[in-house]
Amino acid sequence: MRITQGTFSFLPDLTDDQIRAQINYALNQGWAISLEYTDDPHPRNTYWEMWGLPMFDVRDAAGVMYELYACRKMHPNEYIRVNAFDATRGFETVRLSFLVNRPKEEPEFRLVRSEGPGRSIRYSLQTVFPGERGLS
Amino acid sequence: MNTAVAAKQAPTRKRYDAGVLKYREMGYWQPDYQPQDTDVIALFRITPQDGVEPEEAAAAVAGESSTATWTVVWTDRLTACDKYRAKAYRVDPVPNTGPGTRTEQQYFAYIAYELDLFEEGSIANLTASIIGNVFGFKPLKALRLEDMRIPVAYVKTFQGPATGIVVERERLDKFGRPLLGATTKPKLGLSGRNYGRVVYEALRGGLDFVKDDENINSQPFMHWRDRFLFCMEAVNKASAATGEVKGHYLNVTAATMEDMYERAEFAKELGSVIIMIDLVIGYTAIQSMAKWARRNDMILHLHRAGHGTYTRQKNHGIAFRVIAKWMRLAGVDHIHAGTVVGKLEGDPNVIAGIYDTLREPVTRASLMHGVFFDQDWAGLRKVMPVASGGIHAGQMHQLLHYLGEDVVLQFGGGTIGHPHGIAQGAQANRVALEAIVQARNEGVDIWNEGPQILERAARWCSPLRAALDTWRDVTFNYTSTDTVDFVPTPTEAV
User: Fold this and answer.
1) A chain contacts of residue B437, beta-carbon cutoff 8 Å
2) Is the CB of residue B456 less than 8 Å from the CB of residue B319?
3) Helix-strand-coil percent breakdown of chain A, rounded to 5?
4) Which of the residues B441, B442, B454 would you substitute to probe the A interface, choosing the one with the greatest number of A C-beta atoms within 10 Å?
């Protein structure tokens, strides 16, 4: 399956030039860029691993791209996302977040239903990694 | 009593003689009054009856919305009545009304209310004064509440949005683009099972939210529990299929608070991230549900059902920007606030003023947008405006241009009416949105080049191709009835 998290997941995967253009936009807004990676894109997995600290003092897209290449080299088969953080009062949150790397084969999610009283159901999602398919 | 005020009033002896005085002689007209930082200020548009002077009409509004009755009462003298009287302090003729225009003479009346007139954190109490009796008052032909300035001291007594834009996005893990929604259609008559099918298809196809309509509660064709169960199956299945957080606004509107709490609890039990209420449940019920939503980590969507009965006509009623202000205080997270380009009323300047009211930490006065006062929100969270009604993928660049990023764009017909199916309709909308946001961020002039951006995306996305072909020329170009009174004055080029 193709996971559709992030701002641009319904577009074809962004080229490096397109990624650079988005980073330039974020830097021009005064936002700080950070890179995060994970092998588990469960929608409640909020805290992906940080690739270093947010680059508060990097004001040049080339610096970010350098880090992205290094991150991709270390984690070629994981998800990597670019986050742009806005420290302005009233936001103080991520303003843009998009995927810049995907594993060759993406995990899937199994929907687990626990039936309760009446017809109610408690749902949970479990990440199923490529090697685990067909085991249950 | 300060001397300037005393000069405007009848001498004390005469002031309290039994009988009838003009309102302005009773102290409700005080042109020298300097509003305090802690005053509530209301701006009314008044159309006096023939022969009623504007200052007297303004004083009457001040009187009837605060302490006055039609005749002098000696019991005023048992109170600090000068403090409790609302004070009309300014009256301006409304531009383009009166002799020589098509509209009879109207005035903007500014009225200040002492903070102690109001109970803390109560929209019901605030509105019982400001719009309580006065709208039926005979000396006025018509009356409209145009705007209010709520002092920070009063703002701080309200909870404000249960969740707010920032936390909503953090919970949903969706940043950098408007959210996408749709209202299930047909709005009435589907069984729970069929209804859930529409929800699943739209969410799996690419929308973030699907929504109950305002009049979907618990009817013979679909009782509420059935709807909730089938919708949450759809939501969770779509979440598994996409890896995204998805939601369906489960409308918990019902006849009693007990029923609403029961429905909200069931929505929570099933794991919904969002519930919905209608404006017609009333201000107190809205505040109760906002508190429930804060306690239960729930996003609270408000459908503004009924507002058109009093917001649309320019001479009488309440401007929607005031309702928006009250609802931010009351604590809703989403509110329908106009589309500009869709099928429902929405002048671009009026809509800009409403969106600023909902989303800015401090809303700045802008006569061009119908906003008369600076409004400091004192840390109250921001409300996500919802644009819904007659919009489609081909307008995506216009929607982003007018409404910005922090908005839910709801394409009901524009998703479900897609010729290839609901999921394809949803996909078309999501692709159109992401393509336009991407281009805007790259510095492209989306207002002028929007159609070409969408055409380029349609080359690789056939559902978008079909959407553009189906709705290409659909627009709703009617003149708005609710417009602003001030336009920028062109200045000479130097």
Assistant:
1) 7-8
2) no
3) 20, 30, 45
4) B441
- Catalytic status, residue B185: yes
**pLDDT band per the 50, 70, 90 thresholds, residue A135:** low
How many Cβ atoms from other residues are within 10 Å of residue B362's Cβ? 11
A25 vs B239, B427, B442: nearest CB: B442
Distance from the Cα of A93 to chain B's closest Cα (Å) equals 7
DSSP-assigned beta bridge partners for residue B276: B251, B301
pLDDT in tens, B43-86: 999 999 999 999 999 999 999 999 888 788 889 889 988 899 99
Which residues of chain B make contact with A8, given a CB cutoff of 8 A?
434, 437-438
Optimal mutation site among B434, B437, B444, B446, interface A, most CBs of chain A within 10 A: B434
Separation of alpha carbons B330 and B325, rounded Å: 9
Do A123 and B271 count as a contact with CB atoms less than 8 A apart? Answer: yes
Query: Whats the size of chain B, residue-wise?
Result: 494
In sequence order, the 6+-apart residues with CB closer than 8 A to the CB of B301 are B211, B249, B274, B275, B276, B277, B332, B333, B334, B386
Q: What tens digit of pLDDT does each residue of B250-260 get?
A: 999 999 999 99
Q: Please give the residue that has the higher pLDDT: either B23 or B342.
A: B23
Q: Per the CB < 8 Å rule, is A93 touching B437?
A: no
pLDDT at B490: 53
Give the model's confidence band at B16: pLDDT under 50 very low, under 70 low, under 90 confident, else very high.
confident
- What percentage of residues in chain A have a pLDDT greater than 70? 98
Which residue out of B8, B22, B174, B185 is catalytically annotated?
B185
Q: What is the pLDDT of residue B483?
A: 80
Q: Is the pLDDT of residue B88 over 70?
A: yes
Q: Sign (positive/negative) of CA torsion B201, B202, B207, B209?
A: negative
Beta partners for residue A126, in sequence order: A110
Pairwise CA distance, residues B66 & A24, whole Å: 55
pLDDT at residue B478 in the model:
65
- The answer to whether the beta carbons of residues B212 and B247 sit under 8 Å apart is no
B4 pLDDT more than 50:
no
Whether residue B186 is preceded by a cis peptide bond, meaning omega within 30 degrees of 0, is yes
Report the mean per-residue pLDDT for chain B.
93
Tokens of A13: 């995967």
Assess whether pLDDT exceeds 60 at residue B5: no
Largest CA distance in chain B: 84
Q: pLDDT tens across A44-81, in order?
A: 999 999 999 999 999 999 999 999 999 999 999 999 99
Asked whether the CA dihedral B202, B205, B207, B209 is positive or negative, the reply is positive
In eight-state DSSP terms, residue A135 is: -
